[in-house]
Amino acid sequence: MKTENFKSKDDLQKLIELLRKELEMLYYKKGSFVHPTVLQMSQQLDEYIVMFEKSGP
């Protein structure tokens, strides 16, 4: 996903927070950080965090 898809850095930050909560719930449901679904969501979250950091102040 490209940063152009987000209207603002604030939108991206909201998405990151939402994904963090979903990842936490998924971890508790699956009971493992190495479950494929948990890993996939974690990697997606990492990509968004990198985009957020690169988007500047």
From TrEMBL:
Domain of life of the native organism: Bacteria
Pfam families: SpoOE-like (PF09388)
Protein's name in the database: Aspartyl-phosphate phosphatase Spo0E family protein
Lineage: Bacteria, Bacillati, Bacillota, Bacilli, Bacillales
